[in-house]
Amino acid sequence: MMKKTIILALWAFLAFSGASFCAEDNNDEIRFDFEYGTEGWEIPDWAFDLSKIEVYKGVSAETSTEEASVGNASLKMICDYPGDEWTAAIVEKAQDMDLREYNTISADIFIPRSAPRLLEGRLILTVGDGWLFTQMRESVPLKPGKWTTVEAKLENKLEIDPDTGEPKQSAWRGRKQKRLCYHIDKVKKVAVRVEYNAAPPSRTGSRYKGPVYIDNVVIKK
User: What CATH number should be reported for the domain holding residue 73?
Assistant: First the structure.
């Protein structure tokens, strides 16, 4: 009985502290797989602000065993996209990280077969002392009924084009930020955004109120 009680207590501890456990388990990567809970990932409060709700359509986020790209669980986000304008839903993890030694960041995203084909995934970093918002330059189309891996190379140093002598275009962009490499040692947040890429009047779709699943968020050396 005592042994069973200890095991249950340990499982409960991991459920509430899974984020730090996963982040420190492997020196070669930082991984969030949602096997022991949300691991601190959530829809940010600002996405529910009255000035933002016209664009951000995430309703709730919780762990689920309905779909998983690795293990048995994933993060399930309920969204309510109108379909006739560009909207998005976002989940993020607030954690100070120095990513100078890391090379890539990726996340697996699943959308049901009933989801529209206009959904796309994008990774976002909040960086630096000014909490600068920087996002992948290009979003990745998601395939209904399948897992899609959204991946980007981290810019941990300034790369120069040998032909022009000019800095290469970064895979990341942001309206207020300098290049990501100048802030890569002060990452404040990691986020996954699922966008309904409607562009009226030529590109619109039906309303979608339902889940998207996020799993296996990995930052690798």
Answer: 2.60.120.260
